[in-house]
Design brief:
mainly alpha
Length: 341
């Protein structure tokens, strides 16, 4: 507004300062019948002189349009972190309560979890977290070394057969090693985790935000289901082993469909992908429930001497549950982000 008020005054003062020098010689008042039009050719020079003198003032008071650089505000990012954490905690708590109400109406009859069962379960969870950490660190290191590019350039059948073969060999080697043989058992267990990292390293191409959200959702899902399995009635969900094994077979076949079916079978591929994604989430969520109750049963058997205590073997089952749920969470979140674009 101040520019609009000041600009006419500035221009008028500029013109008034430039006119007195020209008036006596060029623009002096003349009578109509005098030969005043002899000086007409000099009018253009007078106009150009005025224009030249006005240009600096016009440029000085001209409004410039520019787009200021956007500077990120750390305070706004900090303010947005709190509601996100509260939102995630509310989802986790609501999921746990809902699953507990639906599936855990019959609780334990022995007055709660005994100390030996709690210790056995805690040690199993500790080894599960350590194994997931090894897989994550190894996958990140392999991705930075360029392994992901070489892996994606290979034949998918070679990757599938080689990765699954090495993983199964290390897994069964871990299962068949006695717990007292610490070096061999933990070496094979570490080899199992590294083979998983070799296959899963291309996930590092995904956005870190998607990976973090998928990890958070996987922890929430497995944590709530594990809570239900730990507080439910003893051996209540052990009957799920057979149906879940059949479900794993169906999910595995649906995952192999893109390698066998032609690209023209779009509808069949769409249904197979949905079975692999959402059916896999349901199957491996059920396996989490089954594995937790199986771990507690093994703890009771180990206490009476009917079975050996082996938390490393128990952690392998939970690691496989976590990885299968995590992979599907990553794919679902990436599909949602692509649809928003």
């Amino acid at each position: 507004m101040s520019f609009v008020i000041r600009q006419p005054l500035t221009l008028s003062s500029t013109i008034s300062h430039s006119l007195p020098k020209a008036l006596p010689s060029r623009l002096a008042p003349r009578a109509f019948h005098n030969s005043a039009f002899r000086s007409l050719p000099k009018t253009s020079s007078t106009t150009s002189t005025l224009t030249k003198r006005r240009t600096p003032f016009l440029n000085a008071f001209q409004t410039r349009s520019y787009t200021p650089a956007t500077i990120p505000n750390p305070a706004s990012a900090t303010r947005g972190l709190g509601p996100r954490l509260l939102y995630g905690a509310a989802i986790f708590g609501g999921t746990m309560v809902a699953i507990n109400v639906l599936f855990n109406r019959e609780t334990r009859e022995d007055g709660g979890m005994p100390v030996y069962e709690r210790e056995y379960l805690n040690q199993t969870f500790m080894h599960t977290g350590l194994g997931i950490g090894i897989i994550g660190v190894a996958a990140r290191a392999l991705h930075q070394a360029g392994w992901s590019y070489r892996l994606m350039a290979m034949n998918p059948w070679v990757v599938m057969i080689g990765g699954v073969g090495c993983s199964i060999a290390c897994m069964y080697g871990t299962f068949n090693t006695h717990p007292d043989n610490y070096v061999q058992k933990y070496a094979l267990w570490t080899g199992f985790n590294v083979t998983q990292a070799l296959v899963l390293s291309p996930l590092m191409f995904m956005s870190p935000a998607i990976l973090a959200r998928a990890g958070l959702y996987t922890l929430g899902m497995m944590g709530s289901i594990a809570y239900v399995g730990a507080t439910a009635k003893q051996e209540k969900y052990l009957y799920l082993g057979g149906p879940l094994l059949a479900g794993v077979g169906i999910v595995a076949l649906s995952g192999l469909a893109p390698l066998v079916l032609p690209v023209t079978a779009a509808r069949t591929l769409m249904w197979s992908e949905n079975i692999w994604l959402y059916g896999g989430l349901a199957v491996f969520g059920g396996f989490t429930l089954y594995d937790v109750q199986k771990i507690l049963q093994h703890a009771r058997l180990a206490r009476v001497g009917a079975a050996r205590k082996d938390v490393v073997n128990e952690s392998v089952s939970l690691e496989l549950d976590f990885l299968n749920i995590f992979i599907r969470m990553v794919q679902i979140l990436s599909m949602r982000s692509n649809n928003r674009r």
